[in-house]
From TrEMBL, chain A:
Gene Ontology terms: cellular component: cytoplasm
Protein family (similarity comment): Belongs to the aldehyde dehydrogenase family.
Gene expressing this chain: LOC108900334
GO molecular function ontology, one term from the record: aldehyde dehydrogenase (NAD+) activity
GO biological process, one term: aldehyde metabolic process
Transmembrane segments: 468-493
Keywords, alphabetical: Membrane, NAD, Oxidoreductase, Transmembrane, Transmembrane helix
Official protein name in the record: Aldehyde dehydrogenase
SUPFAM superfamilies, alphabetized: ALDH-like
Catalytic residues of the enzyme: 208, 242
Xref: Gene3D superfamilies: Aldehyde Dehydrogenase, Chain A, domain 1 (3.40.605.10), Aldehyde Dehydrogenase, Chain A, domain 2 (3.40.309.10)
TrEMBL record, chain B:
Gene3D superfamilies cross-referenced by the UniProt entry: Aldehyde Dehydrogenase, Chain A, domain 1, Aldehyde Dehydrogenase, Chain A, domain 2
Example of a GO cellular component annotation carried by this entry: cytoplasm
Keywords, sorted A to Z: NAD, Oxidoreductase
Residue span, Aldehyde dehydrogenase domain: 37-457
Protein name: Aldehyde dehydrogenase
High-level lineage: Eukaryota, Metazoa, Chordata, Craniata, Vertebrata
InterPro entries (alphabetical): Ald_DH/histidinol_DH, Ald_DH_C, Ald_DH_N, Aldehyde_DH_dom, Aldehyde_DH_NAD(P)
Coiled coil segments of this chain: none
Any one biological process term the GO annotation gives: aldehyde metabolic process
Similarity annotation: Belongs to the aldehyde dehydrogenase family.
Organism: Lates calcarifer
GO MF, one annotated term: aldehyde dehydrogenase (NAD+) activity
Domain of life: Eukaryota
Length: 509, 501
């Protein structure tokens, strides 16, 4: 069944429908209409899936998608235009440019934590780049995936953008088929399988995986504000965000303060009993619930710790003095548990982060700009936000992606378009001026070799400092000589004219 | 500029002894690679490659190495591929030097963090993209242009601040051995290593976990490398060969076309990833084209190409046999066709009456054989090209710009060139890479730097203006949501959106 769906998408793509920009713009407008018209249905589906509050949905998912669509509509002509490049002497009279082209049929595999954002944002880029796309939303967010399957064909082209729902077996079936690009959001373990399956067909991949995103709090920063922002970032969507701060690194002297501030903030946000708060989410299913609960085993939390298996509810929990080798620190938590690990100072924190796999995001709370810069330089991660959490995700001009075990490739805004396009180098020459080319044909000799060497030299203009100094000196000397010449000429001619002038002057008097 | 540390006396001795006796180098087994990888990683973590001065020094050292040992390279390539001096200097050494000098003059600019466009909520913040090195990268070259395929990516890796392990192809033993001997003398010994692993051992080496793998070669090997890299979640750049089609239209200057085609196809005895693989010739001009090609070949290599100093040889018996078999079982020989096994020599050959099912159309042609197929118009040519896998390059020769644009827009390939061949892969400013079955990723110039860097997005905020940020915190209220929706509509005109969270 999947095979036919993909075959139809490929045929529709090969018919050339997606090439004209008007078609792509029309599809993007239709997608935008879908988001605005069906907002309530989407919120309901999310509430049933993951108990997302009605205010969170537009904020976290829909506004982002709408903004991506608007940006794509506005800039599509600019992005799809050929991009000209620097020429060398040999190609000075030719057209040299890079042309973005669609790849073909793209497979987009979504995740369950933000089912609409991580599935539709890559789709926007795929449509803008002129590809056909097979969308496979995650089966764990059941209601959302069924709703997507019902809605998308009503607004977008049915053949070009089909939705395939199903579980592990359907995904494996899809991965056996050949695509031109695979865009996967999810965990590292499945990411490896996706990449292997794609490698069999030599298909490029974009992987948005997870990792343990560290959050370093310096002792000299405003701890109250820092904790408030961290609490928001950590417990929104019940901790099930790929870029949520996974654990906190701070010095022992401020640990108590941090815990207190977090406790206070939680009271402000969710009240005394978060279970009754309409704004607090739930864990997606029993399996993840048990997984998160088992991570907590053997440790006593200082805040929270309550749970209710029937509702998949885990209270916002903070654990302090967590040892680095504990199970909590080995895998990505993806739940409302916030461990605090103590480090002696910033260097210790840098060392701690560098010992581990490269994370998707890193957060630094510090008021000293120099120290912040040093930390950014000496560590690596997919992205960094300083003095806040998760905000680098919201700016579409910043490329969002991972590095190392946290993924490869990036997207958002123009970067999605570039990721899902092929940048084809084009050199358009003419059949004239063959005399220039004679130098490269055999049989060769030294004279020809010298000519070719000069023609192939790059860069065209030597921008080095030495040449610059010579150029400036030569210009100054030349100018000086010119002025001297002018003065001499004036004096020579002017001996008469100045005399005449003075004579005239005397006559006047 | 600091000189790289000198290798130990024992290593000197071994290197000298090896070259003097001319024995082939010992293969590097995967176990030895583990040790080299560990040393490179330690050097990288010590932060040696991060400084701009270090990178500039290494780039300068690469240029010096090529200039001082030009004769050695010419000699080694002459022995491996019977490559004429002109081709070695022009297409291999000069190319690497250009890349290195380009990187040298632009490095400062490339290393600068890039500031990006901000939206309403981040107007007071610093938003930038920082270029970071990936770590230790593996560069595996191919035998058709051994020096260029190893050193151009190396230039990119050095410029981006990585450590690298280079694996030149085992088929060109003299060149690999020369690189193995020279690189430790010019580049930093801890950061850059040369290994000589065979093609079959390469997947095992990849599984030792690098931060990026850059591979040039054929499709089967590329497939195995991609799968090995997938097992360790290593990003790859693959430059794979394919059958590069070339369309010759009825409206074109046959003499010039033939000259350019002949040069492109028969340089390096046809062993090139970017040479036109087969010609789709318009029926009207086919006879004239073949005649013109014959004249050009006579002009280039004389009546007996075997005597010509400008013509190369096959790299080894395996490739020689494969090309010879393809030649004998396909089409009709219009010119050439002589083979001499002892010298691994195949004469420049033009085949006509080639059918689509012939063996020569089923595999990449890595030899001086040029099949010419006939088509009636450009539609047939486009249909034929689209039936095959996406190639590395598509070429078109025509005076009619409409034909050229049609060919360009209706086919897909890594790169495209009209009225000439190969030049687009020599330009430093154009990205060179494949698409689909011809590979992923691209390099040359700035693109090499980007391939080997991680672009980290950084958002530096302040802790003031919490009064604005509070709008996003729970407990959520209708009032907050409507405030934010209002703010979002306000800035729609300017940039498209705003998200005050």
């Amino acid at each position: 069944m999947e095979r036919q769906v993909v075959q139809r998408a490929r045929e529709a793509y090969l018919s050339g429908r997606t090439r004209p920009l008007e078609f792509r713009l029309q599809q993007l407008h239709a997608l935008q209409r879908m988001i605005t018209e069906k907002e309530t249905e989407i919120s309901t589906a999310l509430k049933q899936d993951i108990n997302r509050s009605q205010y969170d949905t537009p904020l976290l998912e829909l506004v982002g998608i709408e903004n991506e669509i608007k940006l794509a509509i506005e800039k599509l002509a600019e992005w799809a235009a050929p991009r000209s490049v620097e020429r060398n002497l040999l190609t000075i009279s030719d057209e040299v440019y890079v042309q973005p082209e669609p790849l073909g049929v793209v497979l987009i595999i979504g995740a369950w934590n933000y089912p609409w954002a991580v599935t539709l944002q890559p789709l926007v880029g795929a449509i803008a780049a002129g590809n056909a796309a097979v969308v496979k939303p995650s089966e764990l967010s059941e209601y959302s995936s069924l709703l997507l399957r019902a809605l998308l064909p009503r607004y977008l082209d049915k053949d070009l953008y089909p939705v395939v729902t199903g579980g592990v077996s359907e995904t494996q079936e899809l991965l056996r088929l050949r695509f031109d690009h695979v865009f996967y959001t999810g965990s590292s373990t499945v990411g490896k399988l996706v990449m292997e399956a794609a490698a069999r067909h030599l298909t490029p991949v974009t992987l948005e995986l997870g990792g343990k995103s560290p959050c370093y709090i310096d002792k000299n920063c405003d701890i109250r504000i820092a904790c408030r922002r961290i609490t928001w970032g950590k417990f929104v969507n019940c901790g099930q965000t790929c870029i949520a701060p996974d654990y906190i690194l701070c010095e022992p002297c401020i640990q108590g303060q941090v815990v207190e501030c977090i406790r206070q903030t939680l009271l402000e946000f969710y009240g005394a009993d978060p279970k009754c708060s309409p704004d607090y989410g739930r864990i997606i299913n029993q399996r993840h619930f048990s997984r998160v609960m088992s991570l907590m085993e053997g440790y006593t939390p200082v805040v929270g710790g309550q749970s209710d298996a029937s509702q998949c509810y885990i209270a916002p929990t903070v654990l302090k003095d967590v040892p680095p080798h504990s199970r909590l620190m080995q895998e990505e938590i993806f739940g409302p548990l916030l461990p605090i690990v103590t480090v002696s100072d910033m260097d210790d924190a840098i060392r701690f982060i560098n010992e581990r796999e490269k994370p998707l995001a890193m957060y630094i709370f510090c008021s000293d700009k120099k120290a912040t810069k040093r930390m950014i330089e000496e560590t690596t991660s997919g992205g960094v936000t300083v003095n806040d959490v998760m905000m680098h995700y919201t700016l579409s001009s910043l490329p969002f992606g991972g590095v190392g075990q946290s993924g490869m490739g990036c997207y958002h805004g123009k970067h999605t378009f570039d990721q899902l396009s092929h940048h084809r180098a084009c050199l358009v020459r003419s059949l004239g001026m063959e005399s220039v080319n004679l130098a490269r044909y055999p049989p060769q000799d030294r004279r020809r070799a010298r000519r070719v060497r000069m023609a192939l030299k790059s860069p065209l203009i030597d921008m080095s400092k030495r040449t610059f100094i010579w150029a400036v000196t030569a210009t100054v000397i030349g100018f000086g000589l010119f002025i001297t010449l002018l003065v001499i000429l004036l004096i020579a001619a002017g001996l008469n004219c100045t005399c005449w002038y003075w004579r005239g002057f005397y006559n006047y008097f | 500029m600091s000189t790289p540390p000198s290798p130990s006396p024992a290593r000197w001795f071994r290197a000298l002894r090896r070259t003097r006796l001319g024995e082939p180098c010992l293969k590097t087994y995967p176990l030895e690679c583990v040790d080299l990888l560990r040393r490179a990683r330690v050097a990288f973590q010590a932060g040696r490659t991060l400084k701009e001065n270090f990178r500039l020094a290494q780039l300068e050292a690469v240029v010096r190495m090529l200039e001082e040992h030009e004769c050695d390279f010419v000699d080694a390539l002459g022995r491996d591929l019977h490559k004429p001096r002109f081709e070695t200097v022009m297409s291999e050494l000069l190319l690497v030097k250009n890349e290195a000098l380009y990187a040298f003059s632009n490095l400062k600019k490339w290393m600068q963090p890039q500031h990006v466009e901000r939206n309403l909520s981040t107007t007071l913040d610093e938003c930038l993209v920082v270029n970071e090195p990936l770590g230790v990268v593996l560069i595996a070259g191919t035998w058709s242009s051994p020096v260029q395929m190893c050193l151009v990516p190396l230039v990119g890796a050095i410029a981006a601040g990585n450590c690298a392990i280079i694996n030149p192809s085992e088929c060109t033993s003299h060149t690999s051995e020369l690189l193995h001997r020279l690189i430790p003398l010019y580049l930093d010994n801890e950061c850059f290593h040369v290994i000589l692993a065979g093609a079959s051992d390469l997947p095992e080496v990849v599984e030792l976990k690098f931060d990026h793998v850059f591979f040039t070669g054929n499709r089967e090997e590329g497939n195995r490398i991609a799968q090995a890299a997938a097992r360790t979640l290593t990003p790859v750049t693959l430059i794979l060969g394919g059958k590069n089609p070339c369309y010759v239209d009825c409206q074109c200057d046959i003499a010039t076309t033939a000259q350019r085609l002949a040069w492109a196809r028969f340089h390096n005895a046809g062993q090139s990833l970017v040479a036109p693989d087969y010609i789709l010739c318009h029926a009207d001009v086919k006879a004239r084209l073949v005649q013109a090609l014959k004249c050009c070949l006579m002009q280039f290599y004389g009546p007996d190409p075997r005597e010509s100093r400008s013509f190369g040889r096959m790299v080894n018996l395996e490739i020689f046999n494969r090309t010879r078999d393809m030649l004998w079982r396909s089409g009709k020989v219009a010119m050439g066709g002589q083979v001499i096994e002892a010298e691994k020599y195949i004469a420049p050959t033009i085949l006509t009456d080639v059918a689509e099912s012939d063996p020569i159309m089923q595999q990449d042609v890595f030899g001086p054989v040029l099949p010419v197929l006939t088509v009636n118009n450009e539609d047939e040519a486009i249909a034929f090209i689209n039936k095959q896998e996406k190639p590395l390059c598509v070429y078109a020769y025509s005076n009619n710009s409409k034909v050229i644009s049609r060919l360009m827009s209706e086919t897909s390939s890594g790169s495209f060139c009209s009225n000439d061949s190969i030049l687009q892969s020599l330009m430093v400013a154009l990205p060179f890479g494949g698409v689909g079955a011809s590979g992923t990723g691209s390099y040359h110039g700035r693109y090499s730097f980007d391939t080997f860097s991680h672009r980290k997005s950084c958002l530096l905020r302040g802790t003031r203006f919490e009064c604005v940020t509070y709008l996003r915190y729970p407990p959520y209220e209708d009032r907050n949501l409507s405030l934010m929706t209002w703010a979002s509509t306000l800035s729609q005109k300017s940039q498209g959106w705003c998200q005050i969270l």
